[in-house]
Amino acid sequence: MTVKCSRGAFAFTGAGAGAVAVGVPGVVMFAVGLWGIDRGGMWRDEAVTFQVARRSLPQIWHLLHSVDAVHGLYYLLMHPVLAVHSGEVALRLPSLCAAAVTASLVAALGVRLARPRVGLWAGLLYAVTPMVGHFAQEGRSYALVAAGGAGGTLLFVRAVGGWSPGRGVSVGCGSMRAGCAVPRAPEGAPVGVSTQFPAPLEATGWGVYGGVVGCTVLLHEMAVFVLLAHGCALVLARVPRRVWWGWGRAAGGVMLVVVPLGLVSSGQAGQVAWLEPPGGGAVEGLLRGFAGPTLPVLGPYLLLIVLALCAPLARRGELSLPAVALPLLLVPPATLLAVSRHWPLFDDRYVLYALAGAPLLAAAGADRLAGAAARLWGRRTRHVDAYAVPCLGVVGVALVFVAQLPVLRADRDPERRPDNLAAVSAAAARRMDHGDPVLFLPALARRAAVAYPKGFRGAADIALREPGPVSGTLYGRETGPGELRRRLAGLDRVWVVAEPYALRPGWYPPAPAEQVKLALVREQFVPRAEFVRKGSVIRLYVRKTSAEAEAEAGAGAAGVRSVGGRRTCRPVTRCRGRGRGAPPVPPRPARP
């Protein structure tokens, strides 16, 4: 069916236009995400996915009883992927595909709630957003959750549309009431008349919706807030009681899934103990992540969103684009921010799925602007090509991409992640000899050796009792304090791979084994060389000689300096480069 709007609104309609509008953003997203996907190193969260997903299914199940239950379904999905090929590109490829699917789903929402050009612009805006590109190249579940959120929202629109008394939106050139809405009316049915679908079809629609949202919540429990967004959309649309009943049953089914997961994950809350109550900086960061990190993009983006919201949000019984996109954009982040004021849980990646609302509103604002221009110019637009306005919008998105290109390019650098475990492993391989003892402080510093074992091949992990797959832990179970003292007693030197905070004077670990490690290293050894990589420190310790012990006893002796909370006469040789020009490692001292 061809949409006929008021004079001057250029046509880009029909099944072919809809297919183009949905397909092109997915292709663009895949191309943008594929650029630089093999950046040469995993960071700590990706390394967890990499090592857990390669375990056997019983070992994964064993792990989930103690840690990472919230990511259990994702690890199970990644297990066959990494069984085919265990590489960094394979690790990130599911996220890339999910991001491409999400871009197409955002476009499909725009097509169904407005018109094809709105969908095209929204999908392309989503594809060139740096935050989307970041998680498209992340071997974690967040891009898949975003795809589930967008898919669930599309199914929600379709399910509500089956009961809506009218079919229309309030974007573009006036109020369009034609084949843009979902579902299409039967042939011959007058526009604006209630089109009720058979009860079995209605129940199936809500059942599929509940199933998709339930699977999304299993991928990450924070996706449950999408239900609140959909509930707010129903409030804005003032739908009849029958719609509420169908949605309520689907939402109840999802809650039956999320409550057990929430109970299990609450017992593993120590994993997010590093989160802090969010402040104004978190809100600003989320705004820039959703709408654009640079002011030339952020300003016009927000103006277009405001323009889209100038029209009435919805008619009674109808879902408009603003009525769906605005709650999706605001409700999940606002809810998580409010909860996190008392129970810190907020991180922008947990609400990545809410980002889909921003490009939908911006595209709706651009369409409204185009409609106003068409009415203002009147006859002068009559001979403009039907594809001129859609193409003009595409050019605008291309300018947005160019403006954000430096941000996208910088994000491909592995140094932009919190750490680079490949660099840590390479540094260890250059410095450690075969048979050298190595101590990880704390135990989670072992992540580099687990992700890239080649760099630590031949080194003796003196604290490890059981590896992670056997013990059902991420980084293995370590030996007790007594055995650790015995193993360290016969060593002349030891390499320590540590988190930077673990070597600061004020750090005191809660675990007894970690306390013994720290105390023994500080009391019986002195640092000789240090190699720093982002997020990790590799330090060589050698056993104190009698002269050094005597010098340490004279705390006020000249030339004495503090290193790692202990006083020593030996300076520490530091190297923060990539290995070139690094001082040689001191030779292994001969035992008497």
Question: Descriptors for this entry?
Answer:
single chain, 592 residues, alpha/beta, 6-stranded mixed sheet, two-stranded antiparallel sheet, 10 strands, 7% strand, elongated
Instruction: Show unreliable segments.
Output: 1-10, 163-197, 556-571, 576-592
Number of helices, counting only DSSP H or I runs of 4 residues or more: 23
- β-strand amount: 5-15%
Q: Output mean pLDDT.
A: 84
The backbone outline, from C-alpha atoms, is elongated
Number of β-strand runs: 10
By helix and strand content, what is the structural category?
A: alpha/beta
For the sheet with most strands, the description reads: 6 strands, mixed
Instruction: Give the spatial strand order of the biggest sheet.
Output: 2-1-5-7-6-10
Radius of gyration, whole Å: 29 Å
What's the helical proportion of residues? 40-55%
Terminal Cα separation, in Å?
A: 92 Å
Task: Describe this structure as you would to a colleague.
- By secondary structure, this protein is α/β, with parallel strands linked by helices.
- It is 54% helix and 7% strand.
- The protein contains 23 helices and 10 strands.
- It has helices spanning 14-34, 44-53, 57-64, 72-84, 88-113, 116-127, 130-136, 142-161, 199-219, 225-237, 241-266, 280-291, 295-308, 321-340, 357-377, 388-403, 405-411, 421-431, 447-451, 468-471, 481-489, 512-524, 546-553, and strands at 437-441, 460-461, 464-466, 477-478, 493-498, 525-533, 536-543, 561-563, 566-568, 573-575.
- The strands form 3 sheets. The protein has a 6-stranded mixed sheet with strand order 2-1-5-7-6-10. Strands 3-4 form a two-stranded antiparallel ribbon.
